[in-house]
């Protein structure tokens, strides 16, 4: 009925075979470094170690927005961490992110340098540092943080759940695809209802909640991620499409989306960024 092959879990799980899905070669049940590798450092105060994925571009979008606002202190070097080649398990990267996932930031303007990992923590750190794109207090700040944390909790169902089973698993199994398609459609409806009343996620002001949600849910409605646009009927979430289209047009969003990008059209790839002119 479900198309799921029969499987009886053993008493204790052991890592004795690869799952066969895409990314199987980088998945491990243990943390820590696999090899010694010192991270490179550039001339700017902010050193970003990342890749142009939805989680990575949240940070480069914010950095480009800060630079567009005139915050020269937001100049940054963006170094490529190629997760397909296991760079996230190098000793230098693990020192700044023990969780071995991009993005990770090192702020060398503090003494000693400050490490920040998890995209949401990086967005809050930078927004506070430059006092921009995050309301200072009260209900407006609570609303922004609520939507920011909504993204952190929700996107794993879209990517690790739906995307994994619809696009990357070795076979199509009805049970997990059903379960995660239902949840992703519910999430899109949450966004759609919110954006029916508001121009941006928190009202009239664009902030880090939009920057966090756009790379995942904007891509879901505008970029056919996982080749699932028709399957999920994304066009029916009209308010999300309207919002995502407006966010996509922002010059800083266009710039940020190209940083640390190693896939897609050649002219949109900027594997490393060390100067504004790398994007001009
Ligand atoms: N919750 C984390 C998720 C980061 C994440 O999942 N990064 C992925 C790329 S989008 C990664 O580095 N994967 C490498 C791996 O799992 O080994 C965040 O928001 O920063």
Structural descriptors:
single chain, 280 residues, alpha+beta, Glutaredoxin, Glutathione S-transferase Yfyf (Class Pi), Chain A, domain 2, 2 domains, 8 helices, 4 strands, binds glutathione
Could you explain the architecture of this structure?
With 280 residues, the chain is an alpha+beta fold. The protein folds into two domains: 46-133 and 262-279, 3-Layer(aba) Sandwich (Glutaredoxin), CATH 3.40.30; 138-248, Glutathione S-transferase Yfyf (Class Pi), Chain A, domain 2, CATH 1.20.1050. 43% of the residues lie in helices and 6% in strands. It contains eight helices and four strands. It has helices at 54-68, 91-96, 119-130, 138-168, 174-197, 208-222, 238-248, 251-256, and strands at 46-50, 76-80, 104-107, 114-117. It has a four-stranded mixed beta sheet, covered by helices on one side. Strand 1, helix 1 and strand 2 form a beta-alpha-beta unit. The longest helix has 31 residues, at 138-168. The relative contact order is 0.15. Residues 26, 53, 55, 83, 88, 100-103, 118-120 line the site of glutathione. Glutathione (GSH) is lined by residues 26, 53, 55, 83, 88, 100-103, 118-120.
